[in-house]
Amino acid sequence: MGSEVPDVPARAGADAHSEGPKALFDYAVGRLRKQRVLLPGVSVPAWQVSEAREIADRRLHTTVTRAAWRADRSLPADLVALL
Questions:
Q1: What is the reported pTM?
Q2: How many Cα atoms sit within 13 Å of 47 on the Cβ side?
Q3: Below-70 pLDDT ranges, the chain
Q4: Cβ distance 33 to 39 under 8 Å?
């Protein structure tokens, strides 16, 4: 009726055993592309990596700033003046 389950050929299951899981994955991706189903591209993982790097950079900056301030309260201002 409303939602149809796509037909998967019987050989797809056999391919998983004889050719490995990569062959089954490639087959599934090909079917989804043929049916014009949107798949997340490389931009999604790239965005996630970029976001994680920004968070790590902010955390590192905060840690170094606090350590410098504890060592010498004028050190952070002196370091900024060097920039």
A1: 0.43
A2: 5
A3: 1-18, 38-40, 42-43
A4: yes
